[in-house]
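Appendix B, record 7
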Amino acid sequence: MSRCIVVALILWLFLPSFAAWPLSPRQLDLFRLPSIQKQTLDLAEKALIAWTKTGKPYVPSQKEIEGDVFHAQSGVFVTLEKKGKLVGCRGTLSPARPYLYQEIVESALAAASRDPRFQPLRSSDLPGIRMIVTIVGEAMNLSDFSGHDPLIFGLCARSGDKAGVMLPGEAPSTDKQMAWCRKRAGIIAEPVTWIRFTGIRFSRILKERDLS
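Structure tokens (predicted):
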């Protein structure tokens, strides 16, 4: 698992319902395979390169999206860091598009260009970027935090139209995970619905020789 990141993230959310999740645990486990992780990271990296060089979305070939899992549905986040500092993060907790490969490409593009906290990335910014992809798994409403591990589970605080998310591994303790979710959602004293979700995270550092 990636090291803990002690910065809270403001994340764009797509939260229509938490009743059902298209990726089964078996499908999610496929993203532990090095070959599937490479395929996923390749898609995200090519999306970054295409957008920063041409300003156009990346359209993958059929070979690049082979495999049933890339035609399933799931939420995806792409987080971008440079020299240990966040430079972009965007994604969805539940599917916003018909296919998972589309979520990967769109989340990478959005992380580079649509995070309102940062200037859009240029192609010259990409070398040295650590690109982290989180594939979102099962989610459920949570009322009892006993046994909750923030290194394993992500957390969403939701109140009305406000929502804040911390991904698995981004908080060193449950208390901090809860507090950061509230802070990023702008929830002070309102009643909160807590949603816990699983996810698999993996990353790649972009190297200049590969960015052609």
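Remarks on this record: The chain has four helices and six strands. The chain has one domain: 25-206.
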